[in-house]
């Protein structure tokens, strides 16, 4: 049986102790740091700005929509941002008539589940250029809602500068991180089919999800084009994990696609059950929820980190936590914000920011270009069960591998086919009446679609900084964005749309719609960079072990340290890097070298 | 699979739980009785009963919309529905057309609606489709959806 995740009793959390490590944030990075450091026998305090929530109690993944009073939608006083990103200036929720305004992620999910996981934009504004920023504040962070695609990066990414001259190489190569990818795979479980591609290395796969008829047909078609369609590489345990009693194997309920992510049997990885709960069982972990960290405290003589200051998100009382080391994993943008806020006489530009690079080299994935259509052979055929799996398919990058395109780097596609609970053609079929109804019925099982995720170049001039004039509900200065897609992204997006259509036409699918429009910046929820790794303290913030060049006992272990975005989804890399850095940190602590 | 009787029970149930204290049994929460009757006809025209399954009327689509609009938080979400129905009434009266003919005209620009009537059609169709295909009747009887069950293993093709 699955146990209820225990709520931390915050009044009993010991703040007198100097912990071996204080970790800020409990998502993929923070959870992994807690796991690795406690496994090394170190005493760890984990701080999370949000509450502890029991997914099993709030997700209701198998509830039929008609059994929910609002068919799964949020209460009327809640509103999800949609076109506000385009038609308004940030802060987007300012003067909104709704009580609780949330990021766009709620609008495509149409679900009640995440309403307590993501922040109220009215309380947490930000300013500057357009950005659709999704922030989850709860134990587990965005791993409670992630899309589950668990991919590796390769030397095509880590050494991309060697290939095209742009940007910087990572200070590591694939050989450095490969053993840690293996550890993450074996500890958390990943489903997939080996393809032996140098630019998308295989993982230690559990049972792959199968493809349906249209997907298999597209796989065969793409083979003829020298491209690959592989079953969704899901960070989901399809065979189960004997060493983790908090997680079940996947039972193909298809629930992950009907909500904004989330798995109430925890077959899909989430940090609370995959990492934090087992770490608590070691007896070495203390979890403090509702802890909004606003400063990394430093010793004014040595310049070293002494801990953090936080305020209780409910009582708003201020506290100090002390640690021999401090690890930030508050998310790419929040970790950068925290470093910039931590100004002191020792670090006048913010902790770890002697280079002036904190907040810069901000990158992510561009989304939008997509294609949707039908496989004619399947129209009007008897119903099949198509959504009983954690994902459909993935088409790895095929641009700029051997031949140069008119733009730099690559993109991949995520897609799927077949019947869903609410049929896709219900919203795309024109007209009304008997003909409309029959069309929806006949075409529901024949649909196939895919959308692209492309690498946005990490450029110094794309950055976030502190806005001294605007504060959040806690009185903490907010982020101001100076970030936008550039010429390379526009060229890439145009190519994505052409390539998507070309593949569907080659498969003889009837294309119903295709788009070359980029969605607003931020849409992929894959924000990266801002605290990049590197060997040169003048042009990077942390070293290859995610240790601050300036403040040796301060680490940043989330996506902010990525040097480039690659086009592969980042979660698995965040965790593999963090594992490697924490192994190294444990060594240093044992030797007394931090 | 839900059988027809259960669906009828569901449609009745949807009405039953709509009642405010002191309201007429089955009375709409937001719309007037006349508005509700028009809304019900419109939704049934959009997704009608056919040989395969019952339509929007039996799926309680108008009742779902009535309830959603009644609890809407922002006043404009309510008034847009009332204005839209009034616009349909106006067109009906001025054109002398049947309701179905009015809808056919309004549906012509559904991808890029311009007039108040066309915009209302787009809103009405979107809401009707969601309410119908998320209803028990829509999911089970009309679509014969097979998922939302525990599967030992997904049946499909092995990548090779």
Helix content of chain A: 10-25%
Kindly name the structural category of chain A.
Answer: alpha/beta
**Helix amount of chain B:** 55-70%
Estimated share of beta-strand residues of chain B: under 5%
In percent, how much strand structure appears in the residues of chain A? Answer: 15-25%
Q: What is the domain tally of chain B?
A: 1
The string of secondary-structure elements of chain B, in order, is HHHHHHH
Largest sheet of chain A: 7 strands, mixed
Distance between the termini of chain B: 35 Å
Overall outline of chain A? globular
Average pLDDT taken over every residue of chain A: 95
Name the chain pair whose interface involves the most residues: A-B, 56 and 48 residues
Can you walk through the features of this model?
The complex is a heterodimer of chains A (about 600) and B (about 160). Chain A is α/β, with parallel strands linked by helices and about 600 residues long. In chain A, about 25% of the residues lie in helices and about 20% in strands. Chain A has helices spanning about 30-40, 55-60, 85, 105-110, 155-160, 160-165, 175-190, 215-225, 255-260, 270-280, 330-340, 425-430, 435-445, 485-505, 570-590, and strands spanning about 20-25, 45, 80, 100, 125-130, 230, 285-290, 290-300, 305-310, 320-330, 365-375, 395, 410-415, 445-455, 465-470, 475-480, 510-515, 555. In chain A, helix 7 packs across helix 15 (about 570-590). Chain B is an all-alpha fold and about 160 residues long. Helix content of chain B is about 55%, strand content about 0%. At the A-B interface, helix 8, strand 6 and helix 13 of A face helix 6 and helix 7 of B.
């Amino acid at each position: 049986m699955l146990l209820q995740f225990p709520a931390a009793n915050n009044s009993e959390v010991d703040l007198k102790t100097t912990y071996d490590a204080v970790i800020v944030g409990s998502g993929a990075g923070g959870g992994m740091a807690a796991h690795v450091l406690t496994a090394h026998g170190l005493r760890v305090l984990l701080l999370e700005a949000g509450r502890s929530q029991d997914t099993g109690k709030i997700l209701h993944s198998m509830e039929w929509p008609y059994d929910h009073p609002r068919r799964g939608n949020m209460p009327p006083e809640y509103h999800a941002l949609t076109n506000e990103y385009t038609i308004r200036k940030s802060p987007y929720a300012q003067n909104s008539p709704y009580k609780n305004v949330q990021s766009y992620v709620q609008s495509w999910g149409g679900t009640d589940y995440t309403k307590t996981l993501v922040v109220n934009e009215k309380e947490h504004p930000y300013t500057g250029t357009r950005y659709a920023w999704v922030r989850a504040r709860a134990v587990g962070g965005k791993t409670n809602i992630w899309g589950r695609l668990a991919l590796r990066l390769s030397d095509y990414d880590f050494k991309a500068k060697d290939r095209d001259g742009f940007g910087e190489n990572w200070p590591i190569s694939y050989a450095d991180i490969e053993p840690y990818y293996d550890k993450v795979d074996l500890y958390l479980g990943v489903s997939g089919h080996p393809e032996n591609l140098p630019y998308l290395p295989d993982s230690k796969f559990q049972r792959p999800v199968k493809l349906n008829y249209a997907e298999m047909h597209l796989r065969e078609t793409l083979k003829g084009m020298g491209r690959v369609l592989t079953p969704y590489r899901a960070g989901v345990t399809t065979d189960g994990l004997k060493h983790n009693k908090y997680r079940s194997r996947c039972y193909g309920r298809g629930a992950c696609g009907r909500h904004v992510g989330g798995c109430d049997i925890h077959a899909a990885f989430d940090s609370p059950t995959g990492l934090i709960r087992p770490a608590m069982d070691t007896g070495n972990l203390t979890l403090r929820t509702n802890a909004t960290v606003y400063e990394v405290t430093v010793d004014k003589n040595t310049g070293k980190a002494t801990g953090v200051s936080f305020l209780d998100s409910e009582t708003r009382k201020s506290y100090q936590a002390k640690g021999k080391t401090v690890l930030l994993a508050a998310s790419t943008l929040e970790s950068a914000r925290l470093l910039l806020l931590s100004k002191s006489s020792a670090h006048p530009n913010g902790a770890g920011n002697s280079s002036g690079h904190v907040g810069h080299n901000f990158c992510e994935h561009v989304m939008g270009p997509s294609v949707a259509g039908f496989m004619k052979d399947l129209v009007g055929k008897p119903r099949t069960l198509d959504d009983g799996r954690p994902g459909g398919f993935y088409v790895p990058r095929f641009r700029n591998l051997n031949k140069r395109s008119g733009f730099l780097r690559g993109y991949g596609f995520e897609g799927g086919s077949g019947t869903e609970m609410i049929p896709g053609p219900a919203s795309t079929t024109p007209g009304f009446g008997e003909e409309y109804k029959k069309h929806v019925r006949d075409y529901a099982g024949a649909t196939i679609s895919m959308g692209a995720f492309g690498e946005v170049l990490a450029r110094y001039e794309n950055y976030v900084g502190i806005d001294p004039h605007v504060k959040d509900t806690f009185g903490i200065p907010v982020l101001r964005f100076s970030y936008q897609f550039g010429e390379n992204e526009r060229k890439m997006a145009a190519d994505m749309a052409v390539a998507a259509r070309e593949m569907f036409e080659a498969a003889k699918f009837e294309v119903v719609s295709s788009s070359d429009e980029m969605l607003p910046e931020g849409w992929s929820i894959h924000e990266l960079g801002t605290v990049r790794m590197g060997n040169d303290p003048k042009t990077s913030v942390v070293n290859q072990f995610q240790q601050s060049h300036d403040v040796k006992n301060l680490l940043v272990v989330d996506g902010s340290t990525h040097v480039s975005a690659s086009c592969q989804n980042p979660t698995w890399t965040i965790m593999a890097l963090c594992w490697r850095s924490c192994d190294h940190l444990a060594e240093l602590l044992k030797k007394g070298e931090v | 699979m839900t059988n027809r009787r259960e669906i009828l029970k569901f449609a009745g149930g949807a009405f039953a739980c709509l009642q405010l204290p002191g309201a007429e049994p089955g009375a709409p929460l937001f719309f007037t009785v006349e508005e509700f009757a028009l809304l019900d006809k419109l939704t049934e025209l959009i997704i009608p009963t056919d040989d395969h399954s019952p339509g929007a009327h039996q799926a309680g689509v108008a009742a779902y919309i009535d309830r959603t609009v009644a609890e809407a938080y922002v006043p404009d979400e309510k008034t847009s529905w009332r204005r839209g129905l009034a616009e349909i009434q106006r067109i009906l009266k001025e054109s002398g057309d049947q309701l179905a003919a009015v809808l056919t005209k309004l549906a012509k620009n559904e991808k890029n609606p311009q007039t108040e009537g066309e915009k209302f059609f787009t809103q009405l169709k979107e809401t009707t489709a969601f309410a119908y295909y998320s209803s028990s009747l829509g999911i089970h009887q009309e679509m014969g959806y097979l998922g939302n069950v525990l599967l030992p293993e997904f049946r499909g093709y092995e990548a090779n």
